[in-house]
Write a structure and sequence with these properties.
alpha/beta, six-stranded parallel β-sheet, 4 domains, 26 helices, Rossmann fold, single chain, binds zinc ion, 13% strand, binds adenosine-5'-diphosphate, globular
């Protein structure tokens, strides 16, 4: 029966992983909480059972745009669905009520604030409800990333409708948010079904932002000609200015943010969804409910507020399962920017919580650990390093040994009894004259001043590395604590390295030389680019990892005809030559 409905109504041949188990729970009238990444197929889990039931399924959803999409898509399949929201006219509302009372609807979408209304409750009491669906359930939790106070009203569903089951859905929830959802919704002994977080088809990369990142961005976009994508920026003004800048430089973009008049927003949205415009330059107001399957890239121009936000935003890429890219451009200034925004929050616990989230995503962005693995672990899932679907796994970076420095750091933590935070420890290492240090007698310690050679910033990076490698954890009051692993380092049983770039970047960031443009054969360059595209598609790696534009230009200028000549071109190393050299030589020798 289930399989028949799957095929006949939804046109799918088989259930995806976890869908069937979730559907069974819904059919058994059990409460359900399903956590599944975007594109995982959550809608089917409540839509299919509904088609096997006689009444109407009530869906609560946070955004009118989202409801409109869902209703339209059901209607397009000839499934009767309607919505109740505050934007409707009296006549429209009346019509929906009529349909409900005549049991003519399979789905009713309502906005959460409607539940505050006695009339709505009375209406719901009169109709045969199958079960309730809570979409984007994380909105109910203050610990999630899209808290909506209206969602708190949903707690009363179980009081008014104790016999009706609830199916709640979200793409992202930590344990903390999960238990909050269950508690707030008063779910009874719910079935919790959690899918793998891993989105293998999204290639993840991060880069330190250089200046305003315009060059980095253009380089990236040039590799994605004719592809749909979203660029997330931090303010409305930035969305406007960047969009017009890009339009002046050969790209077609539109801005999208909450400050635009509704009809402009809707218009821009439609042009994007219908492929009339390729790139949206948007604030986070853009996203929820975009059902565009072929978004090929998502770029963040600064650090998002949390890994939850970030994961949800990059999750909009590649819903069709095809290879897509996520690029995060950031720098340490973003941290300060965020903290500045937080200064208005008066609830100290909440503020600390938000601050910790920002620190976490900063750590993520700078870390050398597989990005997919880090995301999985953040959401309490586990994953081996992906191997080839993120920059950290795929690229080779020059490493520098820092065993000695790491030993200094760990000793300093040990000698000061593991009760201080990183600033204090670094001050000890650098031999600071700070009063507090001297009062504590830190200048008498053997570790005092032994790390003078490194700057404070360099020590911060080494602290980050110690956390990343699990030598250190953060305890109460931000104190640094040693782990079992740390002893191996202290006993010189473990060699420690770091990506050299992380330390050198600190110096280079400001003094960035402007590359002079070389003269090269433009046609040849285009041919080389086409070859690179072809190889990239074939190997499933981002094009710039094969050769950068810069290297292709160098090749188009030097026109090497054999291996030796090619190896002399800047950007071509032995490894790259072995992997791709001959393919490019063929074109160069045409
Ligand atoms: P989510 O709400 O989890 O982001 P959707 O419900 O929008 O995901 O589903 C994403 C896509 O997957 C949709 O295009 C949907 O038609 C498709 N899909 C869902 N279930 C199946 C299935 N069992 N077989 C094939 N495609 C499916
Ligand atoms: Zn990886």
């Amino acid at each position: 029966m289930k399989h028949q409905v799957l095929k006949d109504i939804f046109g799918h041949n088989a259930f995806r992983e976890l869908q069937e188990e979730a559907i069974d729970a819904v059919l058994n009238q059990e409460d359900l909480l399903m956590i599944l990444p975007t594109g995982g197929g959550k809608s089917l889990v409540y839509q299919l059972p509904t088609m096997m039931m006689d009444g109407v399924t009530v869906v609560i959803s946070p955004l009118i745009a989202l409801m409109q999409d869902q209703v339209a898509s059901l209607q397009a399949q000839n499934i009767p669905a309607a919505m109740l929201n505050s934007m409707q006219s009296f006549a429209q509302t009346h019509e929906v009520i009529e349909q409900l009372l005549n049991n003519q609807l399979k789905f009713l979408y309502i906005a959460p604030e409607r539940l505050n209304n006695q009339n709505t409750l009375e209406l719901l009491q009169q109709i045969p409800i199958n079960f309730f669906v809570i979409d984007e359930a994380h909105c109910i939790s203050q610990w999630g990333h899209e808290f909506r106070s209206d969602y708190r009203l949903l707690g009363m569903l179980k009081h008014h409708f104790p016999t009706k089951s609830i199916a709640a859905f979200t793409a992202t929830a930590t344990h903390h948010v999960t238990s909050d959802i269950i508690q707030q919704l008063n779910l009874q002994n719910p079935r919790i079904i959690k899918g793998k977080i891993y989105r293998q088809n999204i290639f993840i990369a991060t880069q330190r932002r250089i200046g305003n990142a315009q060059t980095q961005l253009k380089n990236f976009l040039n590799l994605h000609k004719n592809e749909s994508g979203i660029i997330y920026v931090s303010s409305r003004k930035k969305a406007e200015s960047l969009s017009s800048y890009l339009n002046q430089h050969g790209f077609t973009t539109l801005p999208y943010h909450a400050g635009l008049p509704p009809h402009t927003r809707e218009h821009n949205f439609k042009l994007f969804v219908n492929d009339k415009v390729q790139i949206m330059v948007a604030t986070i107001a853009f996203g929820m409910g975009i059902d565009k399957a072929d978004i090929r890239f998502v770029v963040h121009l600064s650090l998002p507020k949390s890994l939850e936000n970030y994961y949800q935003e990059i999750g909009r890429a590649g819903r069709d399962g095809e290879r897509s890219e996520a690029l995060l451009l950031f720098n340490a200034g973003d941290l300060a920017q965020h903290k500045h925004h937080l200064s208005e929050i008066t609830d100290e616990t909440y503020k600390k919580h938000l601050q910790a989230k920002i620190t976490q995503i900063y750590r993520y962005a700078t870390s050398e650990i597989c990005f997919h693995k880090q995301i999985a672990e953040y959401f309490e899932d586990s994953l081996e390093p992906c191997g080839s679907h993120c920059q950290n796994c795929l690229s080779e970076f020059e490493q520098k040994e820092i065993t000695k420095e790491m030993q200094m750091l760990l000793s300093a933590i040990y000698k000061t009894n593991q009760i201080f935070g990183k600033n204090y420890i670094i001050d000890v290492l650098r031999g600071s004259q700070d009063q507090k240090l001297l009062q504590n007698g830190a200048d008498k310690l053997s570790v005092y001043g032994i790390g003078k050679e490194l700057s404070k910033k360099e020590w911060f990076v080494i602290v980050e590395r110690s956390l990343e490698l699990g030598f250190v954890t953060i305890g109460e009051f931000q104190s640094l604590k040693l782990t079992q692993e740390a002893t191996k380092v202290l006993r010189s049983k473990l060699q420690v390295t770091i990506r050299s770039q992380r330390l050198s970047e600190l110096e280079k960031q400001k003094a960035r030389v402007v590359q002079e443009e070389i003269t090269y054969d433009k046609d040849l360059f285009e041919k080389l680019r086409a070859k690179r595209r072809e190889l990239a598609d074939e190997l499933g790696v981002p094009a710039y990892l094969i050769f950068s534009d810069k290297t292709l230009k160098n090749l188009a200028a030097a026109m090497p005809s054999n291996k030796e000549e090619m190896l002399e071109v800047s950007g071509v190393g032995m490894k790259k030559y072995e992997q791709y050299g001959e393919e490019f030589l063929e074109i160069l020798n045409l």
